[in-house]
């Protein structure tokens, strides 16, 4: 675990920061039941290291109830993007923290239910008044119990009550899209109660997280910021020699590399397992290695202790090209921008090359000792998302299918001949509790084939879906190689009876170049015609990355009018014959 | 050693080194809030390898008090 700087350094550094320095901005509110001075300063400094301007609001000491209940409170006036509500066991349990057995078992159960109700009511009030995402902590489990070793022989004990509270908190919030539980319970397990809590801190200033652990807590809150701003990394690019196995296969040979159940080979097995788990939750794995292809691929295909197989990698570059050129090719082949990559290589020279030439890529420094690699992977917060969707868990498979499609592409004489062979099916789907998180995710993450790059959180998508003046759908694209899942979104605002406005129109990079966008537009045009609308208005907002969609409007018979593009509904629109359009 | 102490105070309170003296206290240093007072004690504990009791912590009203408690813990401060 990386050692943190002392809190005093964070406080000083934060005073020197200009929060308006960066393009990426976030407003963060902190509410708590105890003293959390220093947390906002630590988070501000950590954000600045990721080029994010963090503007914090810290509510008064133990004022969280008042701030949430009063519609005119400073909290609502500040209008945060994310609100952290940090609670602690002593505050919630009050006198019962010391005297849990002054009441009966059923009274303890009732107490927990009442407290959960109180908090859920508070959250409901907050959600009604604010658009902010809310992150609430669960409770730490103290080692202390007045019953000592008899605690575990007691039915619905003090500790059981805390665990029950945490369980009920999670269950109650599981399906509320904008509210998340931060596992403070596990934070204490990770760092140890004796380290994080000390009586002097507590009694002197009601400080329940000792000063040197405040920066660690800030660190664990960073994933929420990363995820909110859509800065989540999509892909990890790994080297082979001394990264996935010990030694150099070109020199040590197939039998000489270190990879197996005995140390030091087991360190690489452990590391590969972490990579495999990341891939199973939707992070794409890629190889970028300087090696003889035959030597290296033999290890991947035949070595008995390789955890990662050839099919776990969505792209494999094993050659003697420089790694930066390979990175560019990988980015092109996968249709993923450089800012979405993490580069993992044991060689400091290669890391330096990537850091210098492609600063957008996250390139963590690797310890010399491979037994610490897994820890580096675990401590990277860059892969965090608020929720794992079913598209995430099958992404590896989808990219693998894409690899097969690309192979087919090489055999087809021209692109439309190729597209005809794909049996493309485009299904227009409605918004519901399953599709809304994915729609929001697509608006937050899609950069290339995205007409306006409007970013929308789940609650905003929810509001669109309830608004009869908005046409919002997502698109599922299938072909003969498999199901690409929900990979397209459009949001059309019904401005008036004559005119609709194309607010959002996007396709995931995974399905670009198959003309699915024409089926989407065809659907929108037909809906507009049914409603006797005269014209569809659109705007192209250029960014550094959305060149692929730059010609879409003129190519689809939109004509320019000042800053906008207009489609006259009397203009006929033909969808390519090889596309099949379905409606849910 | 007073210099080391004053340096820590000037760093934690974000004030000029020359503005720190034995009489400095929360009314002469605007950043000396109750929380920063605690951060200061924490920094002193780490840098001088001592542990203040809660009575000592509560007793600190100015820099001279800090010196007195550090001396009681065996820290030698050359004035």
Question: Describe it for me?
Answer:
- By secondary structure, chain A is an alpha/beta fold.
- In chain A, strands 10, 11, 12, 13, 14, 15, 16, 17 and 18 form a 9-stranded mixed sheet that branches.
- The radius of gyration of chain A is 27 Å and the shape is globular.
- The mean pLDDT of chain A is 91.
- With 79 residues, chain B is mostly helical.
- Chain B has one domain (2-72): Orthogonal Bundle (Non-ribosomal Peptide Synthetase Peptidyl Carrier Protein, Chain A), CATH 1.10.1200.
- Chains A and B meet through helix 1 and helix 10 of A and helix 2 and helix 3 of B.
What would a concise description of this structure say?
The complex is a heterodimer of chains A (584) and B (79). Chain A has 584 residues and is of the alpha/beta class.
Question: What is the helix fraction of residues of chain A, given as a range?
Answer: 40-55%
Kindly identify the CATH topology of the largest domain in chain A.
Rossmann fold
Radius of gyration of chain B: 11 Å
Number of helices of chain A: 24
Round the mean pLDDT of chain B to the nearest integer and report it: 89
Shape estimate of chain B: globular
User: Can you tell me the number of structural domains of chain B?
Assistant: 1
Mean pLDDT of chain A: 91
Tell me the name of the CATH homologous superfamily of chain B.
Answer: ACP-like
Instruction: Please tell me how large the radius of gyration of chain A is.
Output: 27 Å
Distance between the termini of chain A: 49 Å
Tell me how many strands of chain A there are: 18
| Name given to the CATH architecture of chain B | Orthogonal Bundle
